[in-house]
Amino acid sequence: MTTPLGQELRRLRRERDLRLEDVANETGITLQYLSMLEKGARKSVSFEIMADISRFYGVPLDYFAAFIKEEESKPLSDVEIMLWQTINEKVRDEIYYKKGKSLKDVFSKMLK
Length: 112
Hints:
By secondary structure, the chain is mostly helical. The chain has helices spanning about 5-15, 20-25, 30-40, 45-55, 60-70, 80-95, 105-110. The chain starts with a helix and ends with a helix. It holds the Pfam family HTH_3.
């Protein structure tokens, strides 16, 4: 049984007439992991994986948040929302506007 995120990932891939192998080769994500995401067998997805997928499809990372949110059973805490928003802003700045500090710097400051 697939998830909303899995359905959307499959739709994006098929819309571009790509095979899972094509996406795996271009993103560096294993074929097995991508398959598990599309099938809904993988419930949690790391930020790095979603950033790679976002870059590959040319879709803002925020776009996937709605699909991930549908799958969550409990609401995010205020701290989780703040972190998510901060990370999204930094990724947008780095990926789409090519400015800002590296994500490693951002994460190291957050963990202090």
